Amino acid sequence: MIIVRSPLRISICGGGTDIPSYYRKNEGFFISASINKYVYVTITEPFEEGIYLKYSKIEKKKDIYEIEHKIIREVLKKDLKENKIEITTLTDIPARTGLGSSGSFTTALIKALYSFNQKMIGRRELAEKACDIEINKLKQPSGKQDQYISVYGGLSEFNINKKGFVKVNNLKISKDTIINLEDNLLLFFTGFSRSSSKILNEQNKKTIKKDKEMISNLDYIKSIGYEIKKNLLKGDCDKFGELMHKHWNYKMKRSKNMSNKSINQIYDYALKNGASGGKLIGAGGGGFLLFYSNTPNQLRNALQKKKLEEVRFKFDFEGVKQIF
After folding, report:
1. Which of 138, 244, 284, 293 could be joined to 277 by an S-S link, Cβ 3.0–4.6 Å?
2. Its pTM surpasses 0.90
3. Are 72 and 66 in contact (CB under 8 A)?
4. CB 156 within 8 A of CB 33
5. Average of pLDDT values for 281-307?
6. 151-185 burial, b if ≥16 CB within 10 A, otherwise e?
C-alpha cells in the first residue's frame, strides 16, 4: 500500500498572473502558502485485474479510456503499466471550495503512481507534469499556482517568465511573523461551493484578446503582490492586512461573478468586527474567505454568530509527501 498526501493552499496574492495567457506576455508573480489540510491518495494492487477507483464516486473499469474521472484517466494513460490497480482518494476539505484541491490531487496521484511503479520523480518535474495534465491535456483555464505550491509547500513566492519557467523561493519570513500569521489569519467557509472555470475562462478570453482593462488589473494585482512580499519580510502584518483589502477590491473589478451579495455582506460585516482585510481564496465566486485581524477572537465570535464555519490551520512546510 502506498499513501501520499498533498497539502491544500491559501493564495496570498498575485492569483491570475499564473495563467499562461497573462504570463506569456507580462510574466507572472504570486505568493501562496500550503496549509495542514490535505488530499490523500492511496494505491494498492487488487487481487483481481481491473481498475478500481474510489473518490466521491466508485468506478470499476477494464480499460483506462472508460474512466470517467478526467484527471485519473489522463495520469493513468501515461504511467499505468498494467490494468491492475486500486486508487482511493480522501480529502480534509471538499473540492470546489477554492483551496486548490484539483492541483493537490493531481500531484499526489502522480507521485503515488511513480512510487507504485518503483520510480522517483523530482519536485519540478512533478509540478510540471501536473500542470501539463490540467492546462494542456484537459484544457482547463487554470494556472500553475496550485500544482507548484502543493509540491514545494511553505509560504513561497513564484516568478513565471514568458516561457513558463517557474522560479520558486521559500520566503525567509521570521518565526515571529509566521506565528503572527497563523494566529491572526482566519479562514471561514462562505457556504457556497463553486466551479472556478467560468471566472477563469472569462479572464483567459479577455487576456488573450489583450483587453486593456483586464491586463491593467492583473498588472496592478502583481504590483500589490510585490508590496505584500516586502511587508511580510519586514514583519509588518498590519500593512499586510491593509494590502489584502486593497488586493480584494481590485480583484472584484475583474468579473461580476467574483462575488455575490451574501459574500459582500459577510466581508463588510467582518471589516466592522475586527478584520483589517480579507479575500476570497481561489478564483472567486464562493469557497473560503480569509481575513487578517489583530483581534482574532472578536472576529471569530462575530462570524460564528453568522453561522459561518471556521477552519483553523497552520502552514505546511513539507509539500507533497509519501507518508506510507
Report:
1. 244
2. yes
3. no
4. yes
5. 87
6. bbbbbbbbbbeeeeebebeebebeeebbebbeebb
